[in-house]
Amino acid sequence: MSEQSGSNSRIRATGRRRRKPSRRRRATVVAAWSLAGVIVVGGAGLGYAYVHLNGNLKAVDINNALGKDRPDNVDNGSEDILVLGSDSRSGANSEYGEDQGGARSDTAMVVHVNKGHKTASVVSIPRDTLVSRPGCTGDESGQPVAGEQRAMFNTAYEVGGPACAVKTVESMSGIRMDHYIEVDFTGFKHLIDKLGGVEITTKQAINDSKSHLNLEPGTHTLDGEQSLGLVRTRKSVGDGSDLGRIQLQQSFIKALMKQAKSVGVLGGTKLYGIADTATKAITTDSDLGSVKKLAGFASGLKALGSDDVQMVTLPVEYDPADPNRVVPQEEAGRQVWKALLDDRPIPASATEKSAGDKGAAGQIVQ
Q1: Residue-wise DSSP of 255-320
Q2: Which of 17-21, 98-102, 203-207 has the lowest mean pLDDT?
Q3: What does residue 289 show for φ and ψ, rounded to 5 degrees?
Q4: 221 against 24, higher pLDDT
Q5: What is the pTM of this model?
Q6: Which stretch of DSSP H or E encloses residue 10?
Q7: C-beta contacts of 186-189 below 8 A and 24+ residues apart
Q8: 29: closest CA among 135, 141, 162?
Q9: Pairing with 225, which of 55, 136, 143, 174 sits 20 to 30 Å away (CA)?
Q10: Predicted local confidence at residue 105, as pLDDT
Q11: Which residues of 157-170 are buried (b: 16+ CB within 10 A; e: fewer)?
């Protein structure tokens, strides 16, 4: 992983697959939004540890990279956050597969926290969604990267890093992202272990040769390695596609949110260990790039429980020209984004014909 302080804002990218970054992974995104911030609220009160925790954080200056050509900033008390994971296999992540010299966003979720911060909506964007990717600036080369029609969504991060990922989401949704959060692959694993695991209940067996997860039906306390396996699982659930995996991820997020509620009752040493792991695991936009700023952000999320969060997948259908890709359902997608803009729940009609919220995968974990 590259080293950056919270105030550093170097944006990385090339027009090719990137070779250096040891960067984030799919389910690790859940830790950043529902857990790390809450932990840091407690960690910030540890006095002498403040400077150390602050130095753990890494930040990128999204606002400077994108300039003024963005959707309007709607100042109504709500917040929109792009939460991202990536599939780099370099560095410590190499045990999960061969390093092919780059990173792509493997999971993306738009988190809309409603005015009053008592409810939230989460929209998962499948990585294989074909989109109109806007022109971006390479985050390592600084050179323009041309836009592309029918580009896979996850290539935005590959060619232009965090700023291009944000720009692509804003282009799709018409919504300005207030914040960006990204979490490290192995950092997620360590964070779950520090928490003492996450309890889930499976309704049927999961045996997945790719994620190396084998679970019988019943209640389990998953350690970090098993948790990572669960959210990487797709071949043995649903139709074997990334859409089924997204449903597993959403179920796991809710379980993790419940687990995170126990953090506030932990003692100082235990809490510090969790805060240290959490702050090492995440990269944020520069507006959240310090313990103080992250703590302020987190204070607005503490009232959210798992039952207060609505989770959907961006309405999609399989691409007629390539069954391994999906394309957005335009009218249904407009319903989703308008609901977020209007700060109201996403209507059921928006997803009723989508391939993304169908199938058995979402019923495997409760």
Answers
A1: HHHHHHGGGGGS-HHHHHHHHHHHHHHEEEEGGG-SHHHHHHHHHTTTT--GGGEEEEEPPEEEET
A2: 17-21
A3: -85, 30
A4: 221
A5: 0.82
A6: none
A7: 186/92, 186/93, 187/28, 187/31, 187/277, 187/278, 187/280, 187/281, 187/282, 188/25, 188/27, 188/28, 188/30, 188/31, 188/224, 188/227, 188/228, 188/281, 189/224, 189/225, 189/227, 189/228
A8: 162
A9: 55
A10: 60
A11: bbbbbbbbbbbbbb
Mention every residue, 6+ apart, whose C-beta is less than 8 A from residue 25. 85, 86, 87, 88, 93, 96, 106, 107, 183, 184, 185, 188, 228
Residue 263's pLDDT is 60
Residues in the chain: 366
Tokens linked to 42: 């407690």
In one-letter notation, the amino acid at residue 231 is: V
Are 141 and 13 within 8 A, CB to CB?
Answer: yes
Q: Specify whether the CB–CB gap between 13 and 139 falls below 8 A.
A: yes
Beta carbons of 67 and 7 less than 8 angstroms apart: no
What is the rounded CA–CA span in Å between residue 244 and residue 361? 5
Amino acid at 70: R
Contact assessment for residue 340 and residue 110, using Cβ atoms and an 8 Å cutoff: yes
DSSP state of 190: H
In the prediction, which pLDDT does 180 show? 94
Q: Report, as an integer, the average pLDDT of 86-114.
A: 61
Q: Look at residue 216 and tell me whether its pLDDT is greater than 60.
A: yes
Task: Name the nearest CA neighbour of 58 among 283, 277, 276.
Answer: 283
Q: Average pLDDT in the 121-148 region?
A: 92
Helix, strand, coil share of the chain (percent; to 5): 40, 20, 35
First to last CA, the chain: 34
Q: Evaluate if residue 98 carries a pLDDT over 50.
A: no
**Average pLDDT for residues 251-270, to the nearest whole number?**
69
Residue 257 tokens, joined: 């949110």
